[in-house]
Amino acid sequence: MTSSTVVLEARGLVKDYRRSRAVDGVDIVVHAGERVGLLGPNGAGKTTTLLMVLGVVSPDAGSVVIDGVHVDRDHSKAAASIGFAAGYLPLTDRMRVREYLTMYGQIYGLRDPKPQIAAGLERFRIPDLAEAMGTELSSGQRTLVGIVRATLHRPRLLVLDEPTASLDPDVARRVREGLGEICAEDGTAILVTSHDMSEVERLCERVIFLSKGRIVADGPPNEVAAAYGHGALEDVFLQLADQRDAGRRLEVEQTDRPA
Questions:
Q1: Total domain count, the chain
Q2: pLDDT digits (tens, 9 = 90+) for 123-145
Q3: CB neighbours (10 Å) of residue 197?
Q4: Where are the alpha helices (DSSP H) in the chain?
Q5: Residue 212: which CATH number?
Q6: Is residue 72 part of a domain?
Q7: How does residue 164 score in pLDDT terms, banded at 50, 70 and 90?
Q8: Is 158 within 8 Å of 83 (Cβ atoms)?
Q9: 16 phi and psi, to 5 degrees?
Q10: What is the C-alpha separation between 60 and 52, in angstroms, rounded?
Q11: Is residue 240, in this structure, part of any structural domain at all?
């Protein structure tokens, strides 16, 4: 259940690269227990925004505050309140799952990570994988273990990049159900990026669409889709992608015109 406590407050984020402005004045506020999708076609600015939230990239303007801590002032303290997981992140093949999770529990500063490890494996219905080697895991199992790792320290903000990419329906359901429990029980806020709009509609109660580095929509999935005259988020995504492609064609045509 969403509370009034602000977990993520990003204000006026701007990031310029050599030839373009990737993020142009983005404001994002996420409350405890809230599940928010950060969406948009390639080049919309969502990855750069995500990296600024994580503190990996410094904004040229604006600020990011995680659970009351300014990322630019105390990066270590802010990072301690964040968990990050992505389907493409590798696991250590030469370690057993329990050993891998124990190592990260210690990195997170947990004195005894065993209870959190057991609870996490049970939450995502994979306790039988505790003694499996990394080489024995399927891509879906690796994703589930990665989310358990990212939530061992009960982060205030969980950032997920394509968490259900290429997963079969059963594993994707486990991801959604487990994340829902984390939000409800711990008040963890989730910020997720994905190209799978149907999964986003199932997982997120609110979506933010970016286009050309700016927020163009922010609200419940059904309301955002309706505002664009559609019945599903996928149609909104495709419309924004078509607008992006049309803009690129126009830029090329103007560049190619003789002076």
A1: 1
A2: 999 999 999 999 999 888 999 99
A3: 20
A4: 46-54, 75-79, 97-107, 114-123, 139-151, 169-186, 197-203, 221-227, 233-256
A5: 3.40.50.300
A6: yes
A7: confident
A8: yes
A9: -105, 140
A10: 10
A11: yes
